[in-house]
Amino acid sequence: MKHLQLPLSRADIDGLEVGEMVTLSGQATMSIGLPTHQRMVEHLDAGTPLPVDLKDGAFFHLSCFNRESADGESHEALYLNPTTSTRYNAFMPRLIEGCGLRLVGGKGGLDHASVEAMQRQGCAYLSFLGGGCTLLSQAIQRVVAVHWTDYIAQFRLLTLELSELGPATVAIDAHGNSVYERLHEQAKQRLQSLRDGRAA
Amino acid sequence: MAITSEQITQLTADLYEWSLKKVPDDTKAALAAAAPRESDDTGRKTLRIMLKSADAAESTGGLVCSDVGIPTYSIKIGTRVSFDGPVRQAIVDGFARMAARSDPPILKMVTNPLTHQRSHAGKDMPIVTFDVIDEADYVDITCAPKAMGTGRWEALETFVYPTHQQIEDYVLDVVLRSGSQACPPIVVGVGIGGTFDHAARIAKEAVLRPFGQVNPEPVLAGMEQRLLQAINTLGFGPMGTGGDTTAMAVHINYSASHGFVPVAVSLNCWINRRTRARIHADGRVERIE
């Protein structure tokens, strides 16, 4: 099991291969809001800095319950858990390269345009356990920042300090290898073989 | 003795909460049995992490998944019971009670499809189906919150005089499309026949069937076996990162239909949310799973 410490260099990411399991520590930013992704892209397009600098960092599709204190001064993160990343396919290539991301992740993967963007940028995709809520939440150390509080909890741009988050599987590496593309192609072929076998 | 609205409210709240915090025993057993058989190293490790996650949620009262979905209830009312107040409203209240009291608090997942606003409640929430059981003196309630991981990929198509092969091909195409995204190993429920809405309903009932029962229809028992084997040949594996444990079970229901035959495919992810209990006419509450 490899341990990753954020922020990460291009060389760190180039050293990752699909199928490897990793844990992760450091500051990572997350959101599962489609409007959040939209707003992030609008910032990039307008040349307006995002409220958090994601260069060499991680942006994950992790939903998180973050509770505001009564005075609104502080936040507490109670749990986190991944959601299906393909929902954000349309936004991710722009965000990966525009933000200079080294890690993205959630569950279920990203499409080919993202795989290409990740290869150009030097970025890997981590598959977290869907249904890993209580287990993964043990990694939460503290809330570093909560931005865009006009959104509901899981749509905010949330940065957490994490310790040993995982294990997660490297499912897309920075060399253009995607477990999801490989498995989908393989499944299609195997299904065709089953059908051919039946017809024979 | 009448069943009270409060009993229904309390039980629907409890069933929802239980389903979020405990993976059914048969499902944990299936994951545990699959681990030593799994040929892919990452897949085998992932199955073990799933079991660890289930145990962590159960032992600490935490959530298994943060996507608490939208609650769906199937209510079967024995014709020998009576009620002392509203039933539909009692279920709505149960849903609200769960959302208000939940510890840890649940995220807002119920979404208005027109405005995309999220909430803990919403029009026609929770989704409830009612049926009657002749002569029974109890009310049987099943809760199965439906989240996006699998809810996104469920499908229905209407065929005209389909062959068994066409039906199986359709099920496999749905599974191929959901691929790595439905948090495998999945449970696949298939509903064949009836009408558009009925096929979906019996597919959902099929997905909630406990593991290990052999379909009493030999034709369907064979189809279940073939489909399970074919799905596990596809290679998506646990969490869709590779392996030969892509499905834990395939369950099929059928109903008579016209020459047009709807075929519905319902899916559950590896946490396989389902809880079930009965309120007996004497007031006794029996938790079934």
Automatic annotation (TrEMBL), chain A:
Keyword Manganese: no
Signal peptide: none
Keyword Lyase attached: yes
GO MF annotation list: hydro-lyase activity
Recorded superkingdom: Bacteria
InterPro entries xrefs: Fe-S_hydro-lyase_TtdB-typ_cat (IPR004647), Fe-S_hydroAse_TtdB_cat_sf (IPR036660)
Residue span, Fe-S hydro-lyase tartrate dehydratase beta-type catalytic domain: 5-182
Transmembrane segments: none
Keywords (A to Z) from UniProt: Lyase
Family: Belongs to the class-I fumarase family.
Protein name in UniProt: Fumarate hydratase
Source organism of this protein record: Ramlibacter agri
Lineage summary: Bacteria, Pseudomonadati, Pseudomonadota, Betaproteobacteria, Burkholderiales
TrEMBL record, chain B:
Entry keyword annotation includes ATP-binding: no
Pfam family name, one: Fumerase
InterPro entries linked to this entry: Class-I_Fumarase/Tartrate_DH, Fe-S_hydro-lyase_TtdA-typ_cat
GO MF annotation list: 4 iron, 4 sulfur cluster binding; lyase activity; metal ion binding
The Fe-S hydro-lyase tartrate dehydratase alpha-type catalytic domain, residue ranges: 11-277
UniProt entry tagged with the keyword Nucleotide-binding: no
Key words, A-Z: 4Fe-4S, Iron, Iron-sulfur, Lyase, Metal-binding
Family matches, as PANTHER family: FUMARATE HYDRATASE-RELATED, L(+)-TARTRATE DEHYDRATASE SUBUNIT ALPHA-RELATED
Family: Belongs to the class-I fumarase family.
The name this protein goes by in its record: Fumarate hydratase
Taxonomic lineage from the root: Bacteria, Pseudomonadati, Pseudomonadota, Betaproteobacteria, Burkholderiales
